């Protein structure tokens, strides 16, 4: 089934429109990756994000990474010049680069920079990278105008743009709002960096996924009319 | 013709600011009533009538404590009934739990929890009272009220910044003066209030609220030992456990009954040991069990509800001949009444600022004479206090010499003004007393006289006490509402002015450039700035957000900068008119410039955030300043030197690289270099930091630096525009075309604008650099790097804004500067508690103590960063791309000034007025909050001072720009006239 679809896509000249079902599948699988990671953390390692943030975040990105890179690489923009594996490679390259950008952003916004927070920050930024940069890296590669359009102008045009743009922005905005409880003196364990920020990012990501699905459905509906 | 001319704008702004000032002062004086307190301590004069103490006994201070004690005894004519006092404070115990409510006894479970105390009460061996506490029902002010009898306002707390020690007249001080030895076990608040007064002490901290066991065990463990000793006269026990129980589980907590039982055991132990077992030669011991405040059902306190103010006063060991029925209904007193009662019981003068009235039931054991004397002493003290508060009050009609004729006829009904009322009540009581005394011989049938005298005295005491305490705590709601309404009005005025200016600038831009890019779209950064205002307002209502405000400012400032970065990526080519001119290479260079400058702002902002942890809850976490201090003073010193050198070289670089008017640049550079070198010399000379700064040579050096800075800054601002030369070629050009067309006007104004920008650039940079240098001198050594980073931030922001052109709304940029300023304020180690104010630096270069001068220095130190960023507006005005301005000459020339100054003045004023008004409303809502005195009120003082800072900064900016513009216009006219003559 999957291969058949793949062939169909390969037949099309350049970047192809993504169907409703595909968009749904991509989002479901990436959401599924998240839940599998939480399930494994909870049932196999019997840890939670609050108790072992670093370890859990590590699990999340390990499970999410193949799902995101393999899925999004199929919808690469420059379909002719770029093979599937090259796109996967771009995604893999985008992972640490995006992590660096996210980590820098978080630290600039006040995330603790101490050495004891390093593993947490690294794992968190890898997760964030999968939410934000990696899909774009797989899809757009080094096309600066596309990057600019998605992240600076927030002007998604095609369905795949929506699928990249909205979850990424959702994750970033969610993480931003997630940081607000941190200075409060509620003395809850989840106020630590990066726990509530991760929760915020995940919630934002999921909201972004739902929004992107909604947009794609509405768009195709309008188009169909 | 625009609706808003420059004059109108100025007038409206000034009106708005004036209304705000009036509203603010009305609110402040309504919310924090300032009541005159009497300085010093009561001495033997308190045993004489207020009108008659013209002759004072000056030798009193030399007396030995024991002599003083006997002097008091002699003067008062009342032998102290007790020799030793045990004050047992049970934190947070509502009197209801011991005494019941409305004449009904407490519930059976509670009665059973305190069997011994209840039996004492039932047997008449103890007298219990509901002692009504005044808000704020928080421990420290309540303890103060108990020992001084005064209800303090907030401002007296604010006035003595770092010291928490109680300086007002109080019981402990009085006891100390007569040579009492005191022992304190329990809450360490006592140690903070009375440092060095105790013979022995063991303080426990109330920090661990979850701990209900050890906190009391640590007090009780010494009890057996202390009770066996006889080297103390006053023993203070302060049990915190019950308050902690309340905070955890409320009044009905399962832990409450055991805790009450524990307290009962302590009472039993003390009573058995020291009151029942008294040998005759040892004298009598009085045990007073009090609570500082009550608690609500859920265990909180701080406000003014009945549950919170219902505190306990239990006197154990007084002989009591009053019936139980009488007591159960007449057992409501005020907490402040404890102080005069104890003072009179132990024969010391009543503390000067006491507003309490003695508790008559306690004095039942005294003879009628002595009771009368006690009432008289209390009345004298209150009368003195009244005289201090109502200056005109003298009550001269009271005869001093004791001539007593026709007293009966003078006793009158009291009415009229407060002043007359007090006088009349007092005189009545005094006359009644005299008439009673005169009939001394026939004492047996003067019972009626006695009663009426006592009633007369009580009437005076109660009226005076109520009036005095109401003055301290009452919040005149109408006044506060008027204040808030005025602030709201001014906020609206400022915001509508801002809105109009915005609209006008936008229309002008639209008419000038038909650019696609400035069509009216609502950008993310603009929305964000508005969102930030909302976030700030919401966060002000949360006490922990107020405590940790530094996080918010840094967070929003960095986010705004990140958004600007995103915007830069969006349109990397700079903006506006530059688009058309610059080549692609130039564009790349510009976009690189903008990206790197915004990154510099972000990175230095993060370092600044890490410099001081700040706040209240996480102050002990590691930060850069702690790390550096651990590394040793040498490192700190060298960092200070390096940052001073860097600030100097940076300043000179900027001055000479971009300077236009060479001669003047040299002068400015020279004066800066000189003061910089002097500052360096000051650093090198005083290796050991602050402590050497008191010596004479240091003071002189610092004064010289102040003088150079002041003179050169002021001199430049005044003189610079006069020395600007409009070059002759330009003059000729403008002259030639002067008559013919309308074009020359533009050219003429263009050169004027160029010159204006050049002068403002120099003046603005001079403001910034001298301010930084001054801060380097004044701030703590550890903060010198912070100053450098702030300077770098300003420079980078200026660089960024100078290229941003029309893509960026001006008000967003100024808001960004304002946010950076506030983030920097916290980066310098400030917080919203008064404890972080740097008092040490406030005496730099002041040879003799002056409150005003050190206050100004303290302000300069504390508001270093906001002031710096507001002052940088002068430079901002000069670097901003104003290529669209010259074409508006057809209107009158003040229009230009308005467009240049409108935003830099209105945005800080508008932002600040929103925050001020919002916080004022928050404070009013929170006036009964537990933390109103510890968190919200200090924050309000900071908010008010920020307002003053904004006023000063904005007026400096506006004056400078207006003055420069005016002088330039004038000198240009003069020069052109001269040129005209010349050509002829």
Automatic annotation (TrEMBL), chain A:
First and last residue of the signal peptide: none
Question: Which InterPro entries does this chain map to?
Answer: GPI_biosynthesis_protein_Pig-F
Cellular location(s):
Endoplasmic reticulum membrane
Q: In which pathway does it act?
A: Glycolipid biosynthesis; glycosylphosphatidylinositol-anchor biosynthesis
| Gene Ontology biological process terms, A to Z | GPI anchor biosynthetic process
Topology of this chain in the membrane: Multi-pass membrane protein
Q: Which GO terms describe its cellular component?
A: endoplasmic reticulum membrane
What keywords does the record list, in alphabetical order? Endoplasmic reticulum, GPI-anchor biosynthesis, Membrane, Transmembrane, Transmembrane helix
Instruction: Please indicate if the UniProt record lists Hydrolase as a keyword.
Output: no
Source superkingdom: Eukaryota
Q: What is its main location?
A: endoplasmic reticulum
Q: Which residues cross the membrane?
A: 21-41, 53-72, 92-115, 121-140, 160-179, 199-218
Q: Write the protein's name.
A: Phosphatidylinositol-glycan biosynthesis class F protein
| Protein source organism | Pyrus ussuriensis x Pyrus communis
From TrEMBL, chain B:
Q: What GO biological process term is on the record, naming one? A: GPI anchor biosynthetic process
Domain GPI ethanolamine phosphate transferase 2 C-terminal per the UniProt entry, residue ranges: 526-963
Q: Which InterPro entries match?
A: Alkaline_phosphatase_core_sf, Phosphodiest/P_Trfase, PIG-G_N, PIGG/GPI7, PIGG/GPI7_C
Asked whether the UniProt record includes Nucleotidyltransferase among its keywords, one would answer no
Q: What Gene Ontology cellular component terms go with this record?
A: endoplasmic reticulum membrane
Q: Which residues cross the membrane?
A: 12-32, 479-501, 522-545, 638-658, 665-684, 704-724, 760-778, 784-803, 815-835, 855-879, 899-925, 940-968
**What is the first-listed, main subcellular location in coarse terms?**
endoplasmic reticulum
Q: Could you cite one Gene Ontology molecular function of this protein?
A: CP2 mannose-ethanolamine phosphotransferase activity
Q: What is this protein called?
A: GPI ethanolamine phosphate transferase 2
Look up and give the organism this protein is from.
Pyrus ussuriensis x Pyrus communis
């Amino acid at each position: 089934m999957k291969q058949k679809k793949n062939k169909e896509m390969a037949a099309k000249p350049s970047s192809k429109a993504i169907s409703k079902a595909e968009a749904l599948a991509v989002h479901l699988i990436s959401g599924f990756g998240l839940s599998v990671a939480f399930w494994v953390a909870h049932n196999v390692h019997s840890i939670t994000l609050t108790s072992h943030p670093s370890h859990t975040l590590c699990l999340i990105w390990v499970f999410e990474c193949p799902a995101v890179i393999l899925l999004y690489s199929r919808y690469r923009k420059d379909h002719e010049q770029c093979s599937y594996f090259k796109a996967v490679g771009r995604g893999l390259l985008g992972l640490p680069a995006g992590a660096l950008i996210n980590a820098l952003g978080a630290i600039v916004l006040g995330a603790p920079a101490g050495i004891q927070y390093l593993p947490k920050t690294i794992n968190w930024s890898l997760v964030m990278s999968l939410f934000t940069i990696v899909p774009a890296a797989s899809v757009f590669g080094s096309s600066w105008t596309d990057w600019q359009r998605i992240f600076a102008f927030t002007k998604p045009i095609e369905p795949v743009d929506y699928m990249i743009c909205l979850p990424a922005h959702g994750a970033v905005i969610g993480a931003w709002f997630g940081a607000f409880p941190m200075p409060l003196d509620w003395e809850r364990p989840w106020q630590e960096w990066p726990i509530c920020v991760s929760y915020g990012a995940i919630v934002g990501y999921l909201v972004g996924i739902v929004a992107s699905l909604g947009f794609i459905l509405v768009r195709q509906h309008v188009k169909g009319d | 013709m625009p609706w808003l001319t420059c004059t109108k704008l100025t007038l409206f702004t000034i009106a708005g600011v004036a209304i705000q000032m009036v509203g603010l002062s009305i609110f402040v004086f309504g919310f924090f009533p300032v009541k005159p307190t009497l300085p010093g301590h009561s001495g033997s004069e308190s045993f004489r009538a207020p009108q008659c103490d013209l002759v004072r006994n000056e030798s009193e201070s030399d007396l030995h404590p024991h002599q003083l004690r006997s002097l008091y005894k002699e003067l008062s004519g009342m032998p102290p009934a007790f020799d030793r006092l045990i004050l047992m404070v049970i934190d947070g115990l509502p009197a209801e739990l011991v005494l019941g409510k409305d004449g009904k006894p407490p519930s059976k479970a509670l009665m059973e929890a305190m069997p011994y105390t209840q039996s004492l009460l039932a047997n008449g061996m103890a007298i219990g009272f509901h002692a009504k506490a005044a808000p704020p029902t928080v421990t420290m002010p309540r303890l103060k009220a108990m020992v001084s009898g005064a209800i303090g306002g907030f401002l007296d707390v604010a006035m003595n910044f770092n010291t928490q020690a109680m300086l007002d007249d109080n019981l402990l001080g009085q006891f100390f003066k007569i040579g009492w030895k005191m022992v304190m076990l329990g809450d360490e608040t006592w140690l903070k209030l009375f440092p060095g007064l105790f013979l022995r002490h063991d303080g426990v901290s109330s920090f661990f609220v979850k701990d209900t066991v050890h906190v009391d065990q640590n007090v009780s463990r010494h009890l057996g030992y202390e009770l066996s000793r006889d080297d103390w006269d006053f023993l203070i026990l302060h049990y915190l456990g019950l308050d902690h129980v309340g905070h955890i589980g409320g009044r009905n907590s399962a832990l409450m009954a055991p805790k009450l039982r524990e307290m009962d055991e302590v009472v039993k132990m003390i009573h058995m040991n020291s009151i029942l077992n008294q040998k005759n030669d040892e004298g009598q011991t009085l045990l007073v069990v009090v609570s500082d405040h009550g608690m609500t059902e859920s265990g909180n306190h701080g406000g003014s509800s009945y549950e919170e103010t219902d505190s306990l006063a239990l006197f154990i060991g007084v002989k009591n001949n009053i019936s139980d029925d009488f007591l159960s209904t007449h057992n409501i007193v005020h907490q402040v009444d404890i102080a005069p009662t104890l003072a009179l019981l132990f024969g010391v003068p009543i503390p000067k600022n006491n507003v309490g009235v003695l508790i008559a039931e306690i004095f039942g054991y005294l003879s009628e004479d002595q009771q009368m004397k006690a009432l008289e002493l209390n009345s004298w003290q209150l009368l003195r206090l009244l005289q201090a508060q109502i200056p005109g009050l003298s009550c001269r009609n009271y005869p001093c010499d004791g001539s007593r004729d026709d007293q009966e006829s003078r006793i009158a009904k009291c009415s009229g003004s407060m002043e007359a009322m007090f006088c009349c009540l007092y005189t009545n009581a005094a006359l009644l007393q005299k008439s009673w005394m005169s009939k001394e011989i026939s004492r047996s049938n003067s019972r009626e006289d006695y009663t009426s005298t006592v009633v007369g005295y009580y009437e005076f005491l109660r009226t005076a006490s109520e009036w005095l305490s109401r003055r301290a705590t009452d919040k005149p709601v109408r006044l506060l509402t008027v204040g808030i309404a005025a602030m709201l009005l001014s906020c609206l005025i400022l915001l509508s002015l801002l809105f109009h200016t915005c609209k006008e600038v936008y229309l002008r831009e639209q008419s000038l450039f038909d650019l696609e890019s400035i069509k009216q779209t609502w950008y993310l950064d603009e929305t964000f700035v508005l969102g930030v205002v909302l976030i700030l307002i919401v966060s002000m209502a949360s006490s922990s957000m107020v405590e940790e405000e530094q996080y918010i400012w840094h967070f929003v400032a960095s986010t705004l900068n990140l958004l600007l970065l995103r915007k830069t990526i969006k349109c990397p080519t700079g903006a506006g008119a530059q688009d058309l001119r610059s080549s692609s290479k130039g564009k790349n260079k510009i976009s690189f410039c903008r990206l790197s400058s915004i990154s510099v702002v972000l990175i230095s902002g993060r370092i600044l955030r890490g410099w001081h942890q700040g706040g209240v809850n996480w102050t002990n976490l590691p930060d850069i300043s702690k790390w550096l201090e651990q590394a040793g003073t040498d490192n700190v010193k060298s960092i200070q030197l390096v940052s001073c050198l860097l600030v100097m070289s940076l300043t000179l670089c900027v001055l000479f690289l971009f300077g236009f008017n060479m001669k003047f640049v040299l002068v400015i550079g020279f004066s800066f270099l000189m003061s910089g070198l002097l500052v360096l010399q000051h650093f090198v000379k005083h290796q050991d930091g602050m402590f050497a700064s008191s010596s004479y040579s240091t003071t002189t050096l610092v004064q010289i630096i102040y003088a150079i800075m002041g003179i050169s800054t002021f001199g430049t601002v005044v003189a610079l525009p006069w020395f600007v030369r409009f070059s002759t070629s330009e003059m000729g050009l403008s002259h030639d075309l002067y008559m013919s067309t309308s074009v020359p006007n533009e050219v003429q104004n263009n050169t004027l604008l160029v010159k204006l920008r050049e002068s403002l650039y120099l003046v603005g940079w001079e403001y910034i650099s001298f301010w930084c240098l001054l801060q380097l001198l004044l701030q703590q050594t550890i903060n010198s790097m912070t100053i450098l980073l702030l300077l770098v931030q300003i420079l980078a922001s200026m660089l960024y804004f100078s290229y941003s052109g029309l893509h960026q709304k001006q008000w967003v940029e100024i808001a960004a500067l304002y946010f950076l300023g506030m983030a920097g304020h916290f980066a310098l180690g400030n917080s919203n508690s008064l404890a972080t104010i740097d008092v040490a630096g406030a005496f730099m270069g002041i040879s003799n103590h002056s409150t005003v001068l050190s206050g100004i220095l303290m302000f300069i130190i504390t508001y270093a960063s906001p002031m710096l960023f507001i002052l940088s507006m002068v430079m901002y005005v000069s670097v901003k791309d104003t290529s669209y301005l010259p074409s508006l000459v057809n209107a009158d020339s003040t229009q230009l000034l308005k467009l240049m100054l409108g935003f830099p003045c209105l945005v800080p004023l508008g932002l600040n007025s929103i925050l001020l008004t919002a916080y004022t409303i928050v404070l009013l809502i929170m006036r009964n909050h537990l933390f109103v005195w510890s968190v919200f009120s200090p924050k309000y003082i900071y908010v008010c001072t920020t307002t003053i800072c904004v006023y000063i900064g904005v007026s400096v900016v506006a004056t400078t720009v207006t003055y420069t513009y005016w002088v330039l216009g004038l000198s240009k006219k003069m020069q052109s006239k001269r040129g005209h003559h010349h050509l002829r």
